[in-house]
Design goal:
With 145 residues, this protein is mainly α. The protein is built from seven helices and no strands. The protein is globular and about 50 Å long.
Length: 145
């Protein structure tokens, strides 16, 4: 089944955000999971000749609102560079609060889950797009041989 079919009901309930906005947030979610898993220390946190069996918390797929917003920031800069704010604006994503709205639409539809500690307000004012996507942007230049 395509993303378009899966999200048809969500889009019908809240037409503020196009399918591209949902696709971006879901991609940011996966990228954030991959990055966290790549940077996660070994389960024991230290080297040992005997390894303990992995515990459930070692494999938790949950990420916080702040982590998702930071992951979305990195993904937007990676994909769109200085155009990130403009591209996200095309999808009506103007702030981290919009990312929260999209996530909570996906929670309401049953496509994502939340923990008792999660709150919609976790996404509010995490950073401003102007600061995080433009002002702090660093240009790098590859050396030409």
């Amino acid at each position: 089944m395509s993303l378009r079919n899966d999200l048809a009901e969500v889009l019908a309930q809240d037409p503020r955000y196009p399918i591209q906005a949902y696709a971006f947030v879901l991609e940011a979610l996966e990228a954030t999971h991959r990055e966290r898993d790549r940077n996660r220390p070994s389960p024991s946190g230290r080297k040992s000749s005997k390894k303990r069996p992995p515990r459930e918390e070692d494999f938790s797929r949950h990420i916080t609102g702040r982590e998702l917003c930071e992951g979305a920031r990195r993904l937007a800069l990676e994909h769109y560079g200085l155009m990130a704010i403009s591209v996200l604006a095309l999808w009506n994503i103007h702030s981290t609060s919009d990312i929260g709205e999209i996530v909570y639409n996906l929670i309401a539809s049953g496509d994502l889950e939340k923990t008792p500690n999660d709150s919609r307000s976790d996404f509010d004012n995490v950073f401003t797009f102007e600061n995080a996507l433009r002002r702090d942007y660093i240009l790098t230049f590859d050396e030409v041989a």
